[in-house]
Amino acid sequence: MGTSFGRGGATQSLQDMANADCIVIQGSNMAECHPVGFQWVSEAKARGARIIHVDPRFTRTTAIADKHVPIRAGSDVVLLGALINYVLTHDLWFEEYVRAYTNASFLISEQFRDTEDLEGLFSGYDPSTGKYDPASWAYQRERRDSAPEDAQTDRPGDAGAPSDASAHDGYGDGEAEGESHGSGGPPAASEPLRDETLQDPSTVFQILKRHYSRYTAEMVREACGISEADFEYLARSITENSGRERTTCFAYAVGWTQHTLGAQFIRTASILQLLLGNMGRPGGGIMALRGHASIQGSTDIPTLFNLLPGYLPMPKAELETVQDYIGAIASKQQKGFWANADAYTVSLLKAWWGDAAQPDNDWAYDYLPRLTGAHGTYQTLTEMLADEVEGYFILGQNPAVGSANGRMQRMAMSHLKWMVVRDFSLIESATWWKDGPEIDSGELRTEEIDTEVFFFPAATHVEKAGTFTQTQRLLQWRHQAVSPPGDCQSELAFFYELGLRIRERLKDSGDPRDRPLLDLTWDYPVDDDGDPDALAVLAEINGRHLTGPDRGKPLSSYTQIKADGSTEGGCWIYTGVYADGVNHAADRVPGQEQDEIAAKWGWAWPANRRILYNRASADPQGKPWSERKKLVWWDEAARKWTGDDIPDFPVDRAPGTEAPDGSGGPDALDGDDPFIMQADGKGWLFAPKGMVDGPLPAHYEPQESPVRNPLYAQQPNATRELFPRWDNLTAASRGVPGAEVYPYMFTTYRLTEQHTAGGMSRWLPYLAELQPEMFCEVSPELAAERGLEQNGWATLVSPRAAIEAKVLITERMTPLESGGRTVHQIGLPYHWGVGREAVVSGDAANDLLGITLDPNVHIQESKVGLCDIRPGRRPRGAALVDMVTEYQQRAGLTPQTGNERVTDPARELPGRELPAGEEGQG
Asked: Where is this chain compositionally biased, Basic and acidic residues type (predicted)?
C-alpha cells in the first residue's frame, strides 16, 4: 500500500487512538463491530478529540461522534481525493515531513500518462487482458554506466524500463498479484532522480496535484452526496488537528475493503495521512479494524492462496529455483529489511522440512506449491461448478450464507464428491442439501445430490490454548479453560491427527510427490489428551538457532534470521514472541503498572513495536516534532535511538547519515528513511509498482451503480476481476437500458447481537432473542415511495436472487442527492440464513450479492449492489425463480451486461469482447 507493513496490520496500537486529536471512522461501524477497541475512541473524546463518522447509516458509532457525514457507498475515493486536493491547494501539508519522508520529490517516467490525459485510465493499460503494464509508472533513475548526464531520464525506447532491482520480477503479469510483493512492496529504483524544489512536472508532488485537481468540494457533493458545508467541516477538522502539535487518526474496516476499488480506498487515506504527517506518530496512522480475534493472524500465518507466513509471496510456477523466487520478490540493492527476504524464506523452509531442506536441493523449495493464476475462493467456486473440484474443507466459514452470491455457493457444493465442515453447530453449509433455499425452490433435490458431507464438531476458543492476533498486530495468549466436550477438537488437534494419518498411509510410498508430506517436521509434543502442545507450535513459529553456541535457543529478533540454513522459523514477523524461551504473548502486566505503550501486555509484531515507522515521529534531525507528540528520538550522548516505544529503525543509525554507495538492505537506509520496509525507505504518495489498478487512486463507480462516473468516462475499475456468467448477472448502471429495473442501492453490515454468518449466535436463544429476524433498513422517503409499512414485509430483488425481510423505517438511512438524482440506500444485516437447525433463520443478504473482485486482493464487492424493493413476502417454490427470471428479462440482462472493461465510447480500443471461456453457464 505504500505505507503498510503487511496485508493491513494497523500502523498504530489501538490504545494509541486515545492520543488522537481527531478520529475519522470511515468504512466501519466501530462501536458495534469492535466494541472493545472502541473504548479508546471514547477515551480520545474524553480528552477533547473530535470524532467524525463517515458512513451511509447513522449507527451507534455515529451516536457518539461529533459529526455524521452520510456518504453514497463506494464513492470514498472522491471524498478522500478532495481532502488531498484541499490540503495541497491550501498549503496545509506538513512540508518538512513530506519533503524528508515521502517520495514527493522523486521523478516519474516521462512516458507516464494520468487519468486526466486518458479519460480515466493510466498509461500501460491493455484492454485485451484488462491489466496494466506498470513500466511507465517507474521512477526516473540514475544510471551506473557511462551514459551522459542528459541521458539519465527514461528515453522513448525504454520508457519506464524496470530498474535493476525489478527487471526479473516474476510477479509483474497481474495474475494473482494481490499482495504478491510481500511485506516490503515491490522492488523499485535504488537511486531515483529527484527535484528537491518539487517544481518539475514529473515529480510525484506535481503529478499528485494535477491528479486530484478535479476532486473538489463540488465534486464531493455531486459524487458522494455530501454537502459542501459538511466537506468543509471534515477538511478543517483533519487539517487543524494535524501537524507538529496534533495528529489525526483514520479507522476503517470492511466498509472500505469490500469494494472493487477497496485497496485504493486505503491507499488514498495513506496518501492523505502522509501529506498531513500523521504516519508513524502518536495518535496518527490508519487503523485496519478486524472483526474478530484472529483475522489478522489468519493473514500473518495465512489461510490465503497467494501468501506464505510473514507475507512472503507464494511462488509462481515459472519461478523454478529458490534463487528465481527470491530474485523476483526482493533485491539486495533495495533499501530496508525486505531485502533480507532470502533469510526469511530459507528459515521458513527449514522450519517446515528440517534436515530435508539443504542447499543442494534449494532448501526444499520444490516442495512448495506453485501458483498458475488466481486460486481464491471465488475462482475455486467456478471450478466446483465446472466439476473440477472433488473435495472441500470449510473451517470457521459458512459460505452458504456468508459468501457473495449464496445460490452459486450452494449449487457449487452440489457438484462435489465430498466436503468437510468443522464448526460448533450444523451451520447452513452443512445442511444446504436438505433444507437450503434451492431445495424449496426445486432447483435441487436431496435424493439427487451425490455430495457426501462430513461434519466434525469443533472446540470453542475457551476449549483450546494458543494465540489470537488482533487489529493492532498484537498476539495474546489464550489459556485453555475447559476440555472440549465429546468429539470436539481444536483445529490444531484436527490437522495434527490428519497429518499423522496421511503420513502413515504414505510411509512406504516412493512417489516423489509424497516427499513434501513425509519430510515435514511433524514431531510436536502432546498432552494427556493427545492434543499437540500449542506452546511448542509458537516456539517453532518464533524460530531457533540451529548451529553454533546458541544452537537450540530461541531467536530473539528477526534481524538474527540467516539465509545460510543456520536458523529456522515459521513466521519471521513473529520472531521474538518466544525470545529467551518466554511466552511473551502471555505477558499480562496491568495497565496501571505501565505507560501508555503497554509493552508488557501481549506482544506486537514486529519486535514488539506498538507504532510502526516511528522514526517518523521525530524530525530529520532526530528531535520529536513536538514535546506533546514525542515517541522516539535520537540520544546524541548515547548515539542511539531511544524513546517510549521500541525504535522502528536501525538503533545506531544517526540522523543525517548517508548510506554508502552500493549498499543495500538495512545498510542502505539513510538517517531520514523511516519507512524501513519500503524499497526506497520513503512513504509512497505515488506507487511506482505494486498496485495493479494504478499508481494513484482514481474514482471508479462500483460494478453496479445508480449514477454515472462524474469524473471520467471510465465507469468502473477497468482491472476488476470479472465473473460473467448466467448465474452471476450484473445490473446495468445508470444510463444503460434496463437500469431502471433495479433502481435502489443496498449495502450490508454487521450487528453487535449477531456474529458473522450467525453460526456462533443464531444457535443461542439469548442472542437470537435480541435480534430475532432478518430486516432491512429504509428511509421514510423510500418507504413512502414504495408503499412499505413499519414491521411489515418487503421483498428485495437483485439480478441474482430475491429475499424477504421485515421493514425497519428509520431516519438513520438518509436519501442523498448524487448524480443529479435522489439515491436511496437500503441497509441489510448479513447474519441470517435459511435452514432448520438454528434457533432463528431468515433469508441471507449475501444471496443478493454478485461476484466481482478487487484486483489487488481478490475481495468481493459486498458493500454496494443494486436491487428493487417491493412490499410483501417473496414467492415460494418455483415461483421465486420465476420472479428473479422475470426481472432479469425485463432488464435485458446477459453475462456481458456491466462487464465491459473500457467504457469510454469515444475510445476505440480492441478487446471489448468477453474472453473465450467467459461466456458463462446457465
From this structure: 142-157, 901-911
Same domain, 725 and 796: yes
Residue 155 has pLDDT above 50, yes or no: no
Give the sheet arrangement for strand 603-604, strand by strand.
Answer: 466-469, 474-478, 603-604
For residue 332, being part of any structural domain is answered with no
Find the helix or strand (DSSP H, E) in which 380 lies: helix 377-385
Tell me: pLDDT of 151 over 90. no
Write down the pLDDT at residue 290. Answer: 81
Asked whether residue 6 falls in the same domain as residue 104, the answer is yes
Residue 310 to residue 329: CA distance in whole angstroms: 13
What is the predicted pLDDT for the residue at 179?
A: 46
CA distance 805 to 802: 10
Distance CA 5, CA 16 (A): 18
- What are all long-range contacts of 351-356, with beta carbons under 8 Å and residues at least 24 apart? 351/521, 351/540, 351/541, 351/543, 351/568, 351/569, 351/570, 352/520, 352/521, 352/570, 353/516, 353/519, 353/520, 353/521, 354/519, 354/521, 354/568, 356/515, 356/519
Q: Specify whether 897 is located in the same domain as 780.
A: yes
Q: Identify the H or E element spanning 543.
A: none
Grid look-up 497481474 returns 174
pTM: 0.93
Answer yes or no: is 286 within a domain.
yes
Q: What share of the chain is helix, strand, coil (3-state, %, to 5)?
A: 30, 15, 55
* Phi-psi region at 853: left, alpha or beta (left = phi > 0; alpha = psi -120 to 50): beta
pLDDT band at 291 (very low <50, low <70, confident <90, very high): low
The mean pLDDT value for 510-525 works out to 96
Residue 548 CB neighbour total at 10 angstroms: 9
Please tell me the total number of residues recorded for the chain in this structure: 922
Instruction: Give pairs for 873-876: CB < 8 Å, separation 24+.
Output: 873/793, 873/795, 873/804, 874/795, 874/802, 874/803, 874/804, 874/843, 875/802, 876/440
Q: Residues 91-117: pLDDT tens digits? A: 999 999 999 999 999 999 999 999 999
User: CB–CB of 612/576 below 8 Å?
Assistant: no
Any idea what DSSP says for residue 587? -
Answer whether residue 267 shows pLDDT above 50. yes
Beta bridge partners of 701: 716
What strands lie across the sheet with 452-457, from one edge to the other? Answer: 391-395, 418-423, 452-457
What gap in Å lies between CA 397 and CA 429, rounded to an integer? Answer: 8
746 lies in the same domain as 832: yes
Q: Domain for residue 638, yes or no?
A: yes
